[in-house]
Amino acid sequence: MDGEKMLTSDGVFEEFWEGFRFPDYFGWNWNALLDCLRDLHWRPADRYLTVISNSGRLLSGAPDEREIFFKTLHRVAMEWANPHGKPGGKGVPFNLLLFCDSEEVEGLRGDVERCITV
Q1: In sequence order, what E strands does the chain have?
Q2: Which of 32, 63, 65, 76 is most buried, most CB within 10 Å of its CB?
Q3: Global pTM?
Q4: How far apart are CA 53 and CA 93, in angstroms?
Q5: 3-class DSSP state for residue 76?
Q6: 18-52 pLDDT, tens per residue?
């Protein structure tokens, strides 16, 4: 996925809809993104890796929603990691890999850490 295409929440939803091939019933909002990523029955796998290039631009047009994005993805990862109800009683890794310019690393790291601190 490309952070340049994810400047707003609509861009995020579009990239995830295309990348994960969400069903037509996807609701184009944060709750719908959470629901679809927690399900993924149409894309079964023993692990998931979401790669976002240009991640320093991610939601730069809507910085207040960047926290919602990272909290949503963190919640998805935690739910997939929980072995309860998963095939074979094993958690499924759901990881996010962010590529950015070196001068954006610290700011991006800070944003992620603030959002996933429990």
Answers
A1: 48-52, 94-98
A2: 76
A3: 0.89
A4: 20
A5: helix
A6: 999 999 999 999 999 999 999 999 999 999 999 99
